[in-house]
Amino acid sequence: MRHFAEQGYDAVRVGYIAAELGIAKGSIFQHFGSKDGIVFEVYKKAVRSFPTYLAAPAEARERGFYEVLRYWLVSTEHLLREDWIPCRVSILGNHGTDLTLKREINRFLMADDPGLPVHRSRAVWDFAQQQRGRLWLEFLPAYAPELNPVEYLWSQWKQHECRTSVPPRLGS
After folding, report:
1. Which of 5, 45, 46, 147 fits 88 for a cystine, CB–CB 3.0-4.6 Å?
2. How far apart are CA 17 and CA 122, in angstroms?
3. Would the pTM count as exceeding 0.85?
């Protein structure tokens, strides 16, 4: 992860990573398939390392939305300064990769949301209870587009828009 954060996608050579690890370059390609495969796995690890929104301290959550927002603005500065490697890798994955890799990253973010099942977590339930009627939770079927209008819209969007948002090949 450090190599990509420090040098960017184009400057990193798989041979350098292999030499630092003391393994053959072919072993890395055997495991990951390509340099894009390495970046994709590093990106997933970086994104999964980020705390979720509701991981703010209980005191901040008790004081409401703006206190939670303030907490995350301060924490973001910490992430940029002290825990900068995952931040740089996520920025690299979101903005510094080719279209093919970007397509895989978008699929990961939409299908394998790293925070799931946060919507049914105890923290979300407690937060909703603290809102004293200003917010309520509706539990609809997990995936039943014919019964759940939100899932229907997501299904349509994924099938018709997401597939074509990034072309499968650069020349497409």
Report:
1. 5
2. 41
3. no
